[in-house]
């Protein structure tokens, strides 16, 4: 039997093939900022997933920092609660 056999055949249920997984991993790698610079370096699935997790954590940290900054700016703005709610609503669209 071929090692390129689909996962659906191995598990007995319809599903995703190894080729589809490789395609998805390539697309995920292309989304990472370090790899959008045109580098065609082939990475293992493990490396792509690790880099993706690191990137997502970094994005969460940036969101947290921006949220704290926004909270401070809104507190200093002199706006009433209704106006602050409108601004927050617009930002969460």
From TrEMBL:
GO terms for molecular function: protein dimerization activity. It comes from Ensete ventricosum. This is BHLH domain-containing protein. Belongs to the bHLH protein family. InterPro entries: bHLH_dom, HLH_DNA-bd_sf, PRE. Keywords: Growth regulation, Transcription, Transcription regulation. It holds the Pfam family bHLH_ILI. The keyword Calcium does not apply. Residues 5-59 form the BHLH domain. PROSITE patterns: BHLH. GO terms for biological process: regulation of DNA-templated transcription; regulation of growth.
């Amino acid at each position: 039997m071929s090692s390129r056999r689909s996962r659906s055949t191995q598990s007995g249920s319809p599903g995703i093939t190894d080729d589809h997984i490789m395609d998805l991993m390539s697309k995920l790698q292309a989304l990472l900022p370090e790899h959008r610079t045109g580098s065609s370096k082939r990475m293992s699935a493990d490396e792509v997933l690790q880099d993706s997790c690191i990137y997502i954590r970094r994005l969460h940290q940036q969101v947290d920092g921006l949220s704290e900054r926004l909270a401070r700016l809104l507190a200093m703005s002199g706006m009433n609660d209704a106006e602050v709610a409108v601004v927050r609503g617009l930002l969460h669209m």
